[in-house]
Amino acid sequence: MPVRERKERERARRHQLIVATARGIAEERGWDAVTTRRLAERIEYSQPVLYSHFRGKREIVGAVALEGFAELTAAIRSAVAGGPRGRAAVAALAEAYVAFAERNPALYDAMFLLDAGLPFTDPATPAPLREAFGALLDTLADVAGDADPGLFVEVFWSALHGLVALTRSGRLTEEGTARRLDLLVDRFTGR
Amino acid sequence: MPVRERKERERARRHQLIVATARGIAEERGWDAVTTRRLAERIEYSQPVLYSHFRGKREIVGAVALEGFAELTAAIRSAVAGGPRGRAAVAALAEAYVAFAERNPALYDAMFLLDAGLPFTDPATPAPLREAFGALLDTLADVAGDADPGLFVEVFWSALHGLVALTRSGRLTEEGTARRLDLLVDRFTGR
DNA sequence: CTCGAATGTCTAGCGGTGCTAGAGTTCGAG
DNA sequence: CTCGAACTCTAGCACCGCTAGACATTCGAG
């Protein structure tokens, strides 16, 4: 009975279309512009169709965020692929993280600013999130010194996120980003 | 013509009532619950009255945020009032900052998460914001070492904000906060 | 081939949002 | 006592996330 298979394929296709379209609108005009009406119109279906794929808008944001975590992981891994050590490795990671946020502001918002309903700290934490954390851990573990590597990653990640968040919301100037990153990396690699 | 003066007093009173009520609702039930209708009902005026005091909801959030900056400045100043030096001073400041955010989550959101329309980085930056930054600067200047103190403050503040933001949004566990703060202070005071 | 059931999609609408035009009222000045 | 300005209100706009229920389509059994 291949009919059902075809329908399932089509359904999966449409699922992906919704996620991609939501991301597209968010990148074009920000998440505020991602309304269920606009989204439905763009995919050329009515609003209720969205709710047959997702519980609600939050879950759509979550799906976009998951894509973001996979891409962030790739960006980090690629930034340290040449095998830099010590300060150079940390600097490469930090720059890759900030560049990712600058290049994908809407994606970054979905991952870290908006409520996407994703569990971050319990057993149900999705794999892409764990992998992103793992990518940070792999790079930072050997500069953590005698500190707990997991804790070290959390704090360094927090600092990066703080810089990105305050800059993106206009609370820090964009201009000083490079110097701030430099100082941050210094402090986390013992000058 | 004292009539006008009385009216102006009453108007200022109502202005403050709006700000205090908005803050109250936000503290009770979060900013999502601060709607113009609910706010109007609580102050026992109709919605349009709000718009004779503020351009819109964003400006009300901004007014609450300004209160927050004044209180944060006081909290920081009081935390370092005993004149601790070096690591102890930085630790006191960091703990005061995080404690402030924990104690006033809605206030913190207005200051650093929501779009309150406040200018942070240009000549029109309101005094309370400058003073809060100044309070950080006064404490941190003499542990900045050979780094530019302003830059040092920006980065340390970013790190604190990152910790607070990620914790408050469930991306970090609350449980590890103290250990993370410890590590952060270590890194910014040369171990 | 027919027909009832299941599946899928749509229209229409609920209760809510921020915000505002214009009507109505109040009140001080002359 | 009247008039005009200042003020506040009612009512409503366009939009939001979300959903009940009508309608169409497709499927499997007889």
UniProtKB/TrEMBL annotation, chains A, B:
Q: What are the residue boundaries of the HTH tetR-type domain, all occurrences included?
A: 12-72
Q: Which keywords does the record carry?
A: DNA-binding, Transcription, Transcription regulation
- Specify the superkingdom: Bacteria
> What InterPro entries does this protein's entry cite?
Homeodomain-like_sf, HTH-type_TetR-like_transc_reg, HTH_TetR, MT1864/Rv1816-like_C, Tet_transcr_reg_TetR-rel_C_sf
Q: Which GO terms describe its molecular function?
A: DNA-binding transcription factor activity; transcription cis-regulatory region binding
Q: Which stretches hold the DNA-binding feature?
A: 35-54
Q: One of this protein's Pfam families, by short name?
A: TetR_N
- Give the SUPFAM superfamilies listed for this entry: Homeodomain-like, Tetracyclin repressor-like, C-terminal domain
> What's the protein here called?
AcrR family transcriptional regulator
Query: Source species, please?
Result: Streptosporangium saharense
